């Protein structure tokens, strides 16, 4: 069980790493986050978080980076979702509405809209084995994918329906929007990645809508965007 101070510190480390993709050191935390304790105290607490598996060391730096376990704790206890701006809701609806009578075209527009908003790779599947995707260009915006093998593994998912289905089925929680982080994906080379996804049922169609990005993606923005898109697909698909 983490103390209040450790939770506060872990939240700050995750926030800093999401923004910078640089290993986080104690001095940065003290200076930037106006913590009410010394750099020495922060170092001691970071050492405990390292021992407990919430942080890991990067060999080339004295800083620390969050682990999958840290992100999982962040999602369950620390994160506050951001409300999807009305303009973004309107933008998604405007993309989907003209294609509401052609389901696969609507799914393609849904993935384009989701990718535009999250700046990540978006995917959608149907129960008859079809995949659409958008935003492959965003993959290389994140340092995690500069390793060619990681990028190849990520892009591999855009045309491997059975593999995607296997990944979606790994989610054990019953929440509306699900997340798999790092090793939870069970895919070689994607240990530095995260997947946010939701199942949809729309008329006689079903499948998943998803966003793939680095494990440090902005879940507080991505989760509400995935939820809204899923609900919109269901709403428009059920209208005929």
Largest sheet: 5 strands, antiparallel
Structural class: alpha+beta
CA radius of gyration is 19 Å
How far the N terminus sits from the C terminus, by CA atoms, comes to 51 Å
Q: What is the topology, as strand order, of the major beta sheet?
A: 4-3-7-6-5
Oligomer: single chain
Number of helices: 10
DSSP strand (E) fraction? 15-25%
Question: Low-confidence runs (pLDDT<50, min 5 residues)?
Answer: none
Count of the separate structural domains? 2
H/E element order: HHHEEHHHEEHHHEEEH
Share in helix: 40-55%
Structure description:
α1 crosses α4 and α2 packs across α3. The longest helix is centred in the last third of the chain and has 19 residues. The protein has two domains: 75 residues, Orthogonal Bundle (Arc Repressor Mutant, subunit A); 152 residues, 2-Layer Sandwich (Beta-Lactamase), CATH 3.30.450.40. The chain is of the alpha+beta class and 240 residues long. A five-stranded antiparallel sheet has the order 4-3-7-6-5, with helices on both faces. The mean pLDDT is 92. It is built from ten helices and seven strands. β1 and β2 form a beta hairpin.
């Amino acid at each position: 069980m983490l103390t209040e101070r450790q939770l506060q510190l872990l939240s700050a480390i995750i926030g800093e790493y999401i923004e910078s993709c640089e290993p986080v050191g104690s001095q940065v935390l003290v200076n930037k986050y106006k913590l009410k304790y010394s750099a020495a105290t922060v170092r001691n607490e970071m050492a405990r978080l390292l021992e407990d598996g919430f942080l890991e060391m990067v060999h080339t730096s004295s800083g620390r980076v969050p682990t999958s376990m840290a992100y999982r704790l962040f999602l369950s206890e620390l994160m506050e979702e951001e409300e999807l701006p009305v303009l973004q809701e309107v933008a998604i609806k405007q993309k989907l509405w003209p294609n509401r009578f052609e389901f696969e075209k609507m799914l393609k527009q849904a993935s384009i809209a989701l990718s535009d908003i999250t700046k990540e790779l978006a995917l959608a599947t149907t129960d008859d084995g079809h995949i659409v995707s958008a935003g492959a260009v965003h993959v290389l915006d994140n340092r995690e994918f500069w390793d060619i093998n990681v990028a190849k593994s990520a892009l591999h998912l855009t045309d491997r329906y059975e593999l995607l289905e296997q990944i979606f089925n790994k989610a054990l929680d019953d929440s509306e929007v699900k997340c798999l982080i790092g090793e939870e994906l069970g895919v070689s080379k994607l240990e530095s990645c995260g997947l946010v996804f939701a199942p949809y049922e729309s008329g006689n169609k079903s499948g998943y809508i998803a966003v793939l990005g680095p494990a440090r993606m902005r879940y507080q923005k991505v989760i509400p965007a995935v939820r809204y898109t899923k609900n919109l697909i269901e709403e428009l698909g059920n209208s005929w």
